[in-house]
């Protein structure tokens, strides 16, 4: 029997998986504003902030505080490390769901 692949615990939490999944569809250097991400995920600001912090601490997302004109803006993007971690996570998930299938 082959050993089951480990799922990244940082990504595996449902809310963080949703965040990383949403960010993964953006191009590598594209950023999304906090309110747009919040609305698309239907999460509260506090909940999204907590999960972004965990992802940021792991180096999976980059959060940039800036201004658009005079208005403060928070921009979020998936880092290269985060993109790789998500690819590894999805490969591990596929291996769990389809044992014996080639990846």
CATH superfamily: Winged helix-like DNA-binding domain superfamily/Winged helix DNA-binding domain
The CATH architecture term is Orthogonal Bundle
How would the global form be characterised?
elongated
Fraction of residues in H or I helices: 40-55%
- CATH top level label: Mainly Alpha
Order of helices and strands: HHEHHEEH
**N-end to C-end Cα span:** 17 Å
How many β-strands, per DSSP? 3
Q: Pick out the low-confidence regions.
A: none
Q: What Rg is obtained from the alpha carbons, in whole angstroms?
A: 15 Å
Question: Total helix count?
Answer: 5
Major β-sheet annotation: 3 strands, antiparallel
Q: What structural category do the secondary elements indicate?
A: alpha+beta
What is the domain tally?
1
- Provide the β-strand percentage band: 15-25%
**CATH fold-level assignment:** Arc Repressor Mutant, subunit A
Sequence of strands across the biggest β-sheet = 1-3-2
Q: Average pLDDT, to the nearest integer? A: 92
Structure characterization notes:
The protein is of the alpha+beta class. It has a single domain (9-88), classed as Arc Repressor Mutant, subunit A. It has helices spanning 9-12, 14-24, 34-41, 45-57, 80-97; strands at 32-33, 61-68, 71-78. The protein has a three-stranded antiparallel β-sheet. Strand 2 and strand 3 (71-78) form a beta hairpin. The radius of gyration is 15 Å and the shape is elongated. The two termini are 17 Å apart. The mean pLDDT is 92. Residues 21-96 form the Winged helix DNA-binding domain. This is MarR family transcriptional regulator. It comes from Paractinoplanes ferrugineus. InterPro entries: WH-like_DNA-bd_sf, WH_DNA-bd_dom, WH_DNA-bd_sf.
